[in-house]
Guanidinium exporter
Amino acid sequence: MAWIVLILAGIFEIVWAYSMKLSEGFTRLTPSIITIVFMVLSFALLAYAMRTLPLGAAYTIWTGIGAVGSFLIGIWVLGEPATALRMLAAVLIISGLVLMKVSSS
């Protein structure tokens, strides 16, 4: 159950990161509210998952989901470049997440 909660926390991190971009420095009300709400939800779910998961694994996987997910949203939604080097970096992050999960089981 904690792993599912952690994945949801990571997805919420993607939502708040994207909303923060849309808030234009917290100058737009609706995206700013979405950012704050999902930030609080993401941190709360992370805290809940950390009750049973190791700190290193939980925090690393949470930030990795947020980083890779935000990277993909940047490419798919915001039209950011998908260069070979950036794609390699994302693959390395995902590899690290898989290794972290496997090593903490």
About this structure: Residues 2-103 form one domain. The mean pLDDT is 94. Residues 55-76 form the longest helix (22 residues). The chain is about 80% helix and 0% strand.
